[in-house]
Predict the structure.
Amino acid sequence: MAYPEVSPGSTTAATAAATAPVLSVRNVEKAYNVGRPDEKLAIADVSFDVAKGEFVCVVGPSGAGKTTILRCLSGLLPPTSGEVRFEGARLQDVPDRLSVVFQDYSRSLFPWLTVNKNVAVPLKVAGVRKQEREDRIRTVLHAVGLGDVGTSYPWQLSGGMQQRVAIARALAHQPDMLLMDEPFASVDAQTRFDLEDLILEVRRQLDITVVLVTHDIDEAVYLSDRVVVLSGAPSRIAEIVDVPLGRPRNQLTTRSSETFGRLRSHLMQLVTTA
Amino acid sequence: MPTRAERTGSPDVSPILAAATTPSHQRPARAASRSASSLRRLWSGIWRLWFFAVVLVAWWVLSADSTSTFFPPLRNIVGRLYDLWIAGDARTNAWSSLQHFAIGYALAGLFGVGVGALLWKFARVGRAVSPVLYFVYVIPTAALLPAIMAIMGIGGSMQITIIVLAAVWPTMLNTLDGMRGIDPIKLDTARVMHMSALRTVRTVVLPGAMPQIMAGLRHSLQIGVIMMVVSELVASESGIGFFILEAQQRFAITDMWTGIIILALIGSVLTFLFVAVERVVLAWYIGARAVEKKG
């Protein structure tokens, strides 16, 4: 087999030995309701590194605690044991240079604010002056392919456009890393392709690190440099798979290449047997 | 009605076509129809009042020859209403009532939102305090009147106290409920953005709970008006309630009716003003709901 089997719980993959990872996940364990009769182990032992500029997808069978792991990576949820380091520092809260895009844009966007004001919120928190704020809002909305919708409210836009707004808002204060939780799960297939290409383009332009959680194996292969495969709950690492596909990627040619097909069936096998 | 597929003759592409073209088609159409729709709204507003007009005319005509002591002709009531409340000095009663109401309602609103927010923020304290609150809440405030009169005596501050005590509850409980119902993802978003606690409340929690806060404030408004009158009926030497009771006691039934009509007018104006404010404050909510309904 072309891919080395990594025993579950093993901490190293060949590619993770790169210089000082942006994100370093070490033996993270997460249990809910600790000490109570309904204690439930969601994540048993997960370790992996993400290098600067890398695009890493996390996949796993449904119920594998994908959202839990993302919340641990973002600092929203403290792990029960193990540690997460972001840019060398151990996570206490959500780090400043990290942004999160949640799955459901209709839940994360503020419907009482216009698109411009939604994007302005993180800038206001960071104390960016009004003039620069307006420049940045324009730049970032342009970067996600949104033109003159700034004065609209999110609910006046289509689902795909709303998720673009959410991405723009996450990018507004120029983070080093973007964490995305199934960001394209609530849009139709065509929009999904557009948004996948958009996020690849944004990453190329802004040179940011992206960790994206998804249940969609094709999406993971299409986007990633590496795919972290989780086992079923309680999650361990089933395997970390390198994606030796060239860039820029193309929905038509990349997806129909032989390597893509090989990776896809390998991952499919991992996820369904994990 | 012919479907889009029939018109384009190509059922396969039409949904995509429709999806691609609707937004740009919709926007100018929406702007153009705005003036037409405001005309239509005005007309429907007039139309909605036709039955009210019929009732008024019927009252006027049917009561014209009335000799009943208790149901004088509407013409006489309107005449007295002008003499007393517009030309005369019954106005001072209206001012006195409205002053107490305004202060009482404002305080009830502020306390309601403030205490509701604190109960939400300090959930643990809130859980301990809740049973007491609900116990006090179920006491009809009118039953507290004798106690409050004994403690505070008769006068404006006692009347304001009564209004606040009664009107604070709907706003407080709705604020608490609305804030508890904020989507946790929105609070996560606030955390990811490093919002301070104060900014989270201002930017996320208050606006998010605003639909329910406004519902509470509206209920508080009605209760405030009721308690304004009740306090004047029981213990007061001024106010519209006092005027109505006093007129009834000296058998000036026509005067009594004028006071009741003035209360109805004040109630209507207050409700109208409230709805106008609500339309501005909750414009986003009303708009989003309309979009949701359309699907």
Notes: The interface with chain A takes residues 16, 23, 183, 185-186, 188-189, 191-196, 199, 203-204, 207-208, 210, 284-285, 287-288, 291-292 of chain B (CB under 8 Å).
